[in-house]
Amino acid sequence: MEQFSVNKNCSTLYTGVPLIDISKPDSKTLLVKACEEFGFFKVINHGVPIEYMSNLEVKAVNFFSLPLSVKQKAVSPHFFEYGNKMIGSNGDFGWVEYLILTTNTESSRRNFSSIFGEAAENFSRVLNEYVSAVRKMACEILEMLADGLKIEPRNVLSKLLMDDQSDSIFRLNHYPPVPESNGKKNLIGFGEHTDPQILSVLRSNNTSGLQISLKDGDWISIPPDQNSFFINVGDSLQVMTNGRFKSVRHRVVVNNKKESRVSMIYFGGPPLSEKIAPLPSLMKGEDSLYKEFTWFEYKRYAFQSRLADNRLGLFEKIVAS
Ligand code: GA4
């Protein structure tokens, strides 16, 4: 049973989660509020062609329907990685299979072609089209946020995603229905976590599963919408706003539906050498809540942690009261 429904005429989901029309210039204030209160919001009128989304979904479904032995060949360190049930390398498991790709699609394509030949050409064209459009939208959102926060230049955040060295990742997830024989086990689709990067852009098909955690720790189900995007504030953006924006804890519950859930997520990250620290123009005499670190250091630490860990904890300064 769907717990919540969407009311298209008002500016929040039934859950209270903000629904933002980014084609309206005055949405910058709503974006800032959403990042402060939820670290999460839904975006409509985003300008990404719907066929880019559906074309990539078709490619993803085709890929995941290949025999396991073929999918398992889709591993090329630093370029792409197929995974099944094992998330990260520290013992986290989910009822999910996935493909992680670097967004440097040229090098991914070359490595991909060596495994999938002709079909890979097509895959990388559709992927490229989608990732470029989604990156552009993510940058527009970051620029509206800079405007809303009254910080200059307005590309202070978006330039990190546009940089040639930007360490962004793209992920395709496939959540197959759990067979009935497995139904009684305590399974999760993708365990709770926050995203380490700056901003994540999620698009899923119309099968539910995504939940976010509210400030009071309650979990709410987010009704899926295949024509919209869901945006997560990542840990790096929380730090760059000195804690004003919150990186949202989220998870995907196990799929008990008949249809598979398929999601695609762009994780916008800075170059590895980038210093992650509160933006000086936001500080106005405030002290930084965080010790300084580079994205390389944070990413290395994140990839050694467990999914549910509070990764920012290590970098928080002890403030004398
Ligand atoms: C969460 C966000 C992205 O999916 C990801 C994930 C990564 C992985 O799947 O390998 C991590 C997870 C994510 C955070 C903690 C570490 C690393 C799994 C894990 C246990 C690709 C990312 O960048 O961080």
Describe what this molecule looks like in 3D:
The chain has a single domain, classed as Jelly Rolls, CATH 2.60.120. The strands form three sheets. Strands 1-2-11-8-13-6-5-4-3 form a nine-stranded mixed sheet. The chain has a four-stranded antiparallel sheet with strand order 7-12-9-10, with no helix packed on it. A two-stranded antiparallel sheet has the order 14-15. 30% of the residues lie in helices and 23% in strands. A hairpin with a 4-residue loop joins strand 4 and strand 5. With 321 residues, it is of the alpha+beta class. Helix 1 (27-37) packs across helix 5 (118-148) and helix 4 packs antiparallel against helix 5. It contains nine helices and 15 strands. The model is unreliable at 1-11 (pLDDT under 50). Residues 87-88, 90, 92, 100, 169, 171, 193, 195-196, 267, 302-303, 305-307 line the site of gibberellin A4. Gibberellin A4 is lined by residues 87-88, 90, 92, 100, 169, 171, 193, 195-196, 267, 302-303, 305-307.
